[in-house]
Design goal:
elongated, alpha+beta, 14% helix
Length: 112
Amino acid sequence: MKLEELLRPNKILVVVDGPELLTEATRATVGLFTARRDPPYFQGDEYHAHAAVPGSYEVAWTTSGTRRHENKFPAQIPNDARLAVTKVLGVNPDLLESFRWRDDGMHVVNTP
């Protein structure tokens, strides 16, 4: 074999039977609620998941359990929406932050 033939790049063809093999599961449904997982948006960010709930709200939490987009949270969060988020994130439901309030000292207090 000549040197030119050895240095010529080889081509490899990969054939996949269906596109589902190339995509990672990024959605999970519990009851009437479907959550979608999004990748981190910027360096230092985390994976997070969103679930639309009645009243044009959308609940969202990160893999560490903190809420995202707090202005979109309703006063009452359907349990199945919360469970769909935990399912798609692969985390324990007890990890998700339920609500926040400010104490008299203006500190943010998290309650599971």
